[in-house]
Design goal:
- By secondary structure, the chain is an alpha/beta fold.
- It contains seven helices and five strands; from the N terminus they run E-H-E-H-H-E-H-E-H-H-E-H.
- The protein has one domain: Rossmann fold (3-Layer(aba) Sandwich).
- The chain has a five-stranded parallel beta sheet with strand order 2-3-1-4-5.
- The chain is globular, with a radius of gyration of 16 Å.
Length: 179
């Protein structure tokens, strides 16, 4: 029986470690000769979704577009690694509806104060200076149980350990994947 392609969706606050872990996961799949595409939220916002803002409706459309691309790629037998904030239940519900059985969630967690301290892209600094609206005060709705089945805490575990935890989950979803 053939393994269906998966969309491994990493979500969490800006600065939690999503992009770093997404790139590592992509590399791990490529190293095993498994077809994979990585869709990073920042890259998507700079290109296909550059017409969207940061209000809830725009964020929803951003996630809808990314999920539709992931679905199209999955239907072509390509695995997809996605890294976005997906801060609201509505966003994640929309993604889940589009991707169905292809979707595997990874909740990448770090508390807000740690994300502000890390601030790899300077987003929090700009938000605190009033240059970006709806970032530091934007509600991040905690994941529901099904969305946090693959809970990755980048504060209590180093990146290598987080990556290893993710590989164990991937192995359970892709029959051709070995650690």
């Amino acid at each position: 029986m053939k393994t269906i392609a998966k969309a491994f969706w990493l979500f969490g606050r800006s600065g939690a470690g999503k992009t770093t872990l997404a790139q590592r996961l992509r590399t791990s799949l490529l190293d095993r000769n498994l077809p994979v595409v990585c869709l990073d939220g920042d890259e998507m916002r700079a290109t296909l979704c550059s017409d969207l803002g940061f209000k809830s409706e725009a964020r929803l459309e951003n996630h809808r577009r990314i999920a539709e691309i992931a679905r199209l790629l999955n239907n072509q037998d390509l695995n997809v690694v996605v890294a976005t904030m997906a801060p609201e239940h509505l966003h994640r519900d929309t993604v889940a509806k589009i991707l169905g059985r292809h979707l595997v969630w990874f909740y990448i967690h770090a508390p807000l104060d740690v994300c502000i301290e890390r601030d790899p892209k300077g987003l929090y600094k700009r938000a605190l200076a009033g240059q970006i609206q709806q970032l530091t005060n934007y509600p991040f709705e905690p994941p529901r149980p099904a969305e946090q089945e693959n809970y990755i805490n980048t504060v209590t575990q180093d990146i290598a350990g987080c990556h290893q935890s993710m590989l164990e989950t991937v192995r359970n979803h892709l029959k051709d994947f070995t650690i």
